[in-house]
Amino acid sequence: MTRIPLRPLAAILQARKRGQDPNLIEQRNTSQRHEAIQNELRSVGEGRLVVLGLMFFCAFTVIGARMGLMAGTEPTEIRAVSHAPDILAQRADIVDRRGRVLATNIETHSLYAQPQEMVDPAQAAKALAEIFPDLTAERLLKDFTGKRKFLWVKKKISPEQLQRVHDIGEPGLMFGPREARLYPNGKLAAHVMGGTSFGREGVHAAEVIGTAGVEKQFDAYLRDPANGARPLQLSLDLTVQSAAERVMFGGMRLMGAKGASSILMDVHTGEVISVVSLPDFDPNDRPMPPVSGAPDDSPLFNRALQGVYELGSTFKVFTIAQALELDLVAPETMIDTRGPLRWGKHRIRDFHDYGKELDVTTVLTKSSNIGTARIAQMIGPERQKAFLDGLGLLAPTEIEMPEARGGTPLLPKHWSEISAMTISYGHGLAATPLHLAASFATIANGGRKITPTLLKQDGPRYGARVVSPEVAAQMNGMMRKVVTEGTASFGDVAGYAVGGKTGTADKAKPDGGYYKDRVITSFASVFPANDPRYVLVVSLDEPEIYSYGENRRSAGWTAVPVAAEYINRIAPLLGLRPDVEPGELAGITLTSN
Q1: Which stretches does DSSP call E strand in 99-172?
Q2: More confident residue, 159 or 563
Q3: pTM
Q4: Which of 222, 306, 343, 366 has the greatest count of CB atoms below 10 A from its CB?
Q5: Does 84 score more than 60 pLDDT?
Q6: For every residue of 79-91, which 3-state class applies, written as one string?
Q7: Confidence category of residue 582, pLDDT binned at 50, 70, 90
Q8: Which domains are assigned to the chain?
Q9: Which residues pair with 367 in a beta bridge?
């Protein structure tokens, strides 16, 4: 801005010539200068007001938009609005070896309440108590009339329940979408499935997490979005599992047993085709774990994987197999069976008097404790322990189930000679039925160690060699004779050559010692015996059947018939064709051309 002097000389001189007052010129210039300064200040002030107005406008716009957004959304609990990652509700399916669904997801809803929005809390509480019998009207009314502004009513409701709640017409009752886990086959393979529960929860989603079984073992895989929702494929066969559970339930009831278990395993791949533990439960409504009593009183207890029992004379197979492998005996070697066998204060007796001596094959078929103990003396405790360890009988199994870690074998504190003698016929060392199945599979497949698995395999999975193929073949032949000539005579199945070994063991008391009238009976079998493909272990807890004028508790009378019916039912389902011996055709003469 050009600064104009307040008293310009030219203007003053002209004013004096015209006779005017020169001071007026100074006053006019001062007034013009003040006016220019005011105009400049006014422009600056107006600009600042415009900027401030724009700032207030933007701030109130953001606040108003946020308030509108909050008013238009449903409320959530404080814990659900933290800065944690979004809840991933999608969980992959679980299918059997043929792709049939064992576990999947369904869309359902949760029910929650906003008490401040309720019109008639008392009527709502009464109506909800009628829809959900596990809720009480008094408790609901107390919650609805309290200070809480949000509360869950039910975390999961059915479509029918949703409609009935909707019909109440209470605006303070609201629904949120929810994904839940469904087991469409109910109790089938319940112990393998295990179950799920909700982890982190919000109004619109809930985190489904595994709590037991394969759901817990493979929880990370099932929840991982990187897997593209690919299903988890198990080795189980749904059809075989269904037939197995029917047979085992009927056998348990018929034999008056407290519980039962069975394991069917492929001897070459280690795949568990079926695993049964009774009594069982429905994973859709998994019961709470017991807080008192014996663990096996609960239906959640997996007898096949967690039940650690002395398995009786089934261990005689391992004793004789090791003796054959070490060239200590041959199948025809004669063994002294005179009894009782004394070792210090201990006495070892046979169930029957078998005379002075038996050959090794007959020791197994007749199940002589004395003969087996004498063979164990030849082997010695150190070599016996190493052999059983090679079979996997001294450590928990590696199957993909968290419950398997609880099935730790119980070993003697001091593996002495007497320990070796009693362990040789299945007393003094306790293991699970799954241990027994894996060990028999190792013998049956030609002597290579097998590790059980619940995942479908593409081919054989052999481990280290435990016995030679020649010894394995001899043992398969001996086990066949146990069925045709020995203690498992009720185990013969028409069309299918079955081999195996029975085992009857006194049941141990929780506080030490053994029951006199309670046993665990087992039958470990392989079929077809001439070329084994499968091993089946059937165990019954406290069986007793009245037959031929007396109560029978031995495995030959209890576990063996159940196993025979099992094989008869499931062998065709496994694709095994029966061997039918040719007979004479009545009235027909065969001639050659």
Answers
A1: 101-113, 151-157
A2: 563
A3: 0.81
A4: 222
A5: no
A6: HHHCCCCCCCCCC
A7: low
A8: 94-233 (3.90.1310.10), 239-288+305-574 (3.40.710.10)
A9: none
